[in-house]
């Protein structure tokens, strides 16, 4: 069942990436080359029909292969996406920008031409100043991205959005990376999953466990309260899940290493 949960969570994430802007976060390891890492990222996105133009930002730890003026990875990324925002793992990097943005948001916005073109800066700034004076901001328990997205729904007397451009800009800003800490957490989870007692687990199995855990967490549930979606239930009932499982067994019996086969391609 874990592989089925992972299968649907992976597809759900891919659909989000195809439709929305996102950032790429990478944790470097000493045995990786800049070009090899970049080719792996690009080929994975291309294979899954995710547009490279949807990448707004890139963050990593400060390995020389990924960060810095001489980084081949950054050069290749900027060749494909000239406006991409890159940052090392420094959580307080936005502090100087935020200090200047109290009265005007332009000093912050000019750093991100991909989401705030020059011809929109004045309008975004006008909405920012209106926002600072606005007295009817609804109290909300929403996350920061959800809050800024919801500001688009505040209308004026002509039924026009009061903060249309500001809402879009701030929502996109929350997509930008500020640290690669979350990638470090994944490596920690891998170490907890593949222990000395489970050291024969295949890479695909570990990936499925991590995706299954993520699927449950993203729904704000725990293992005993999580409810599968209708599509997953349908696949269990009509036998699709079993057929995917049998495909895996077929490769295993044929002596094919799962690590050498794209099992998700088989699943689909």
UniProtKB/TrEMBL annotation:
It comes from the Eukaryota. This is HAT C-terminal dimerisation domain-containing protein. It comes from Octopus bimaculoides.
């Amino acid at each position: 069942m874990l592989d089925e949960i992972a299968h649907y969570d992976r597809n759900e994430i891919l659909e989000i990436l195809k439709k929305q802007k996102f950032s790429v976060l990478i944790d470097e390891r000493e045995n990786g080359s800049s070009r090899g890492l970049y080719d792996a990222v690009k080929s994975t996105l291309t294979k899954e029909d995710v547009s490279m133009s949807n990448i707004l930002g890139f963050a990593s730890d400060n390995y020389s292969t990924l960060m810095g003026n001489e980084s081949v990875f950054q050069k290749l990324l900027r060749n494909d996406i000239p406006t991409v925002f890159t940052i090392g793992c420094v959580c307080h990097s936005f502090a100087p920008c935020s200090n200047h943005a109290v009265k005007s948001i332009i000093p912050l916005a000019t750093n991100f031409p991909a989401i705030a073109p020059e011809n929109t800066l004045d309008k975004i700034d006008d909405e920012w100043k209106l926002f600072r004076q606005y007295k009817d901001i609804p109290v909300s328990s929403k996350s920061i991205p959800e809050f800024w997205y919801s500001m688009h729904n505040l209308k004026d007397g002509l039924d026009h959005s009061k903060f249309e451009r500001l809402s879009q800009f701030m929502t996109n800003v929350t997509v930008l990376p500020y640290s690669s800490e979350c990638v470090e957490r994944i490596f920690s989870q891998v170490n907890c999953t593949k222990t000395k007692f489970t050291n024969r687990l295949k890479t695909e199995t570990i990936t499925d466990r991590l995706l299954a855990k993520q699927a449950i967490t993203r729904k704000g549930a725990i293992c005993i309260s999580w409810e599968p979606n209708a599509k997953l239930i349908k696949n269990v009932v009509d036998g699709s899940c079993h057929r995917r499982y049998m495909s895996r067994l077929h490769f295993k019996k044929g002596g094919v290493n799962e690590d050498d086969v794209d099992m998700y391609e088989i699943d689909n």
